[in-house]
Amino acid sequence: MEPLRYDPFAPEVMTDPLPIYARMRDEDPVCFVPRFDCFALTRFEDIWATARDWQTFSVERGTTSAQLLTRKMGPYPALGNLDPPRQKERRKLLNPLLTPGAVRALEAELRAISKRQAALLREQGELDVVTDYAARIAIGALCLSTGFPMEDAEQLRSFVNAIFVREPGGGGLTPEGVAAYDALSRYAMDLIGRHRAGAGYASGLIALLCEARVEDGRRLEDDEIAGHLREFMIGGTETFQKAFAACVHRLSEHPDQRREIARDPRLARDAFMEALRLDTPGQFMGRTALHDTQIAGVPVRRDQVVLLIWPSGNRDPREFVDPDRFDIRRRAPRMLAFGAGVHDCLGRHLAIAEGAIGIQSLLEAAPDYRVELDRSLRLASEFIQGFTFLPIRAS
Ligand code: HEM
Fold first, then answer.
1. How far is 33 from 21, CA to CA, in rounded Å?
2. According to the model, what pLDDT value does residue 168 have?
């Protein structure tokens, strides 16, 4: 057998990482990656414990591959790049927008969006689940929960999409991606300007951030506010599209489970969670060690980066019985698609509601939809994986 060598940018890792993750879990669970002088964690328990140990593993030097590995981008002041206590204070400020209660209040509008898109499938006979369905729900939910103007939804979607596009060859974030990221920053600044000029975003995320007093009573700078806005724009859209398309695909592979949901729509939520576990879109987020430490007996030096390979943890047989099986009744008590610890996903209640409502509306409109897998396209990326194009037909 070939010696085990892991590089997140290797073509086989960017297109089909599960075989190497399985080997890493068994042979080298705290795997040293010489190219980046970092470690990659693949077992559930190690990832879970490291993500929760914020006193040792910091996010302040970044968490993404562009921040920690290729260094094409610096960290920016938002929840995901702040350690407690600053992160906890900001999170408390933003949390009211995304509590289960706040999400419940949006459900009727979310259902209206997904029913409208599902009706298109019936009218046209065919639809791309990623762009014409999941993306509409994700951007709609983002605008509803934050107060971002709905008329900007399409522009927002195209900026975010461009950030995640990858060229073959494994260079990570592309120059077009950097440009889209800058455009998103300008758009965020423009929203702040419009708010300050009295454009009427009286409630919602922008107002919350503009009015806030943080730390010792200071106001946030505009670039800090823009950082938080960008985090919501990016965090809330791309991953959802990938997870949702994966769920639609899995259910077409398992028509018996799909029929169960049609009979009991409450199971749609479980199906979405199980697809998130089995087809976790985010490949990893990283941390930097603040002092010398050990992970599962392996020494990690201060300033070394550690990658948390979420999809591998989510397929770890030490945590999940028969982990490669799609089972909507699994209801795993723990999983890693939304992270773990103080930085776990702030938008998870919203994402789960979007997923459940989206599946319910789709099955109401087309309970026997057919996936055209031969024509589907997937993103080959070190960072986010999943379908970029998944056509389905009404029957
Ligand atoms: C299926 C969809 C989603 C997935 C798979 C996902 C995944 C994640 C993961 C893995 C993290 C933790 C990152 C880390 O530990 O470094 C995270 C954090 C975060 N997510 Fe999500 N997310 C999703 C949807 C959303 C939505 C809809 C929003 C907002 C509208 C959102 C906002 C955030 C924010 C603000 C954080 C940072 C939390 C903190 O650092 O305290 N996410 N997400």
1. 13
2. 75
Q: Is the CB of 42 under 6 A from ligand 1?
A: no
Q: Whose CA is nearest to atom 2 of ligand 1?
A: 240
- The ranges of the chain with pLDDT < 50 are none
Which residue's CA is the nearest one to ligand 1's atom 41? 343
Burial class (CB in 10 A: 0-12, 13-18, 19+), 132: middle
Report the topology of domain 11-393: Cytochrome p450 (1.10.630)
Locate the domains of the chain by residue range: 11-393
Residue 236 CB–ligand 1 contact under 6 Å: yes
For ligand 1, is residue 87 a contact (CB within 6 Å)?
yes
Ligand 1 contacts CB of residue 235 (under 6 A)? yes
* pLDDT of 200: 65
Distance CA 199, CA 5 (A): 54
Tell me, letter by letter, the H, E, C secondary structure of 249-307. HHHHHCHHHHHHHHHCCCHHHHHHHHHHHHCCCECCEEEEECCCEEECCEEECCCCEEE
Evaluate: CB of 313 within 6 angstroms of ligand 1: no
Name the pTM for this structure: 0.96
